[in-house]
Amino acid sequence: MLYPQAQTQAEITANLASVRERIAAACARAGRLPDSVRLLPVSKTVDQSRIRMAYAAGCRVFGENKVQEVQQKWQEMADLGDVDWVVIGHLQTNKVKVVAKMAREFQALDSLRVAEALEQRLQLEGRTLDVLVQINTSDEASKYGLHPDVAASFVQQLRQFPSLRVKGLMTLAVLSTDAERVRACFVRLRELRDRLRIDLPPGMHMDELSMGMSGDFEIAIEEGATVVRVGQALFGARALPHHHYWPNQALTQEHTQ
Ligand SMILES: *Cc1c(COP(=O)(O)O)cnc(C)c1O
User: Which CATH class is domain 9-237?
Assistant: First the structure.
């Protein structure tokens, strides 16, 4: 499905309402309360003027994939005052400084080196950062995210980093038109979260499941998502395909877009 470009305030407001309705409907089908799912609007590649329209429509948090882009937008839109930025893309240690300074949440933690570098910078900034651990639930599709088998020991090691407030797990499902293959990724993340919860370091919580995007967020909600990351259904189709943002996914055969 190709989402039409949303250029005007009316279009963005209408798209937001429609995504919220779809979230509510998926919650109802799954017997969940509508406020048990957070919408994270994903604004990568979206320019400042359209992000401001989303703000005017009620959005107060935005997800971005690339550090340079989120830094620029954070500076350009500082006048708004009450926007939170969430980094949802892979991070290199040389970029942690910006994230430690300005992000409220980082959803793609998958390396202890990055965790350690973030901890050092956060201590200097006197800040904490909510983090989700990214898990590769589709095996073949992405080079990012931890294999589920190593997640337990990874999470135990995160207790060395008190400035990182571990909240849960994040995944990207396989990019497939086969809904059952997509669903299997979400089930895998939920089951992993449930297992990890049994033996967490003291004080650590593991409630959040960030899973589902424009093409699959309803399935994710049926399988327990607490955060859905939605870009194109709000702002319109992006020029660049998904594999531009997630290297190696170019290798899978069944892109939905
Ligand atoms: C871009 C992106 C999304 C949103 O994808 P849409 O198809 O725009 O909804 C979700 N998660 C991550 C990690 C992304 O990079």
Answer: alpha beta
Task: Give the predicted TM-score (pTM) of the model.
Answer: 0.94
Output the CA 42–ligand 1 centroid distance in Å: 6
Using the predicted structure, report yes or no on whether residue 79 has a pLDDT greater than 80.
yes
User: CB under 8 Å to 183, separation ≥6 — which residues?
Assistant: 219, 222, 223
pLDDT digits (tens, 9 = 90+) for 90-145: 999 999 999 999 999 999 999 999 999 999 999 999 999 999 999 999 987 667 99
Pocket test for ligand 1, best of 229, 230, 244, 246 (most atoms within 8 A of CB): 229
Read out DSSP for 93-104?
Answer: GGGHHHHHHH-S
- The string of pLDDT tens digits covering residues 1-19 is 689 999 999 999 999 999 9
Say if CB 140 and CB 150 are below 8 A apart. no
Spacing, Cα 44 to ligand 1 middle (Å): 8
Strand segments, DSSP code E, in the chain are 38-41, 61-64, 84-87, 105-109, 129-134, 164-170, 208-210, 227-230
Which H or E run contains 127? none
Give the tokens for residue 2.
């190709």
Ligand 1 atom with least separation from CA of 230? 9
Q: Ligand 1 pocket: which residues have CB below 6 Å?
A: 42, 44, 65, 88-89, 172, 213-215, 229-233, 245
Give the model's confidence band at 254: pLDDT under 50 very low, under 70 low, under 90 confident, else very high. very low
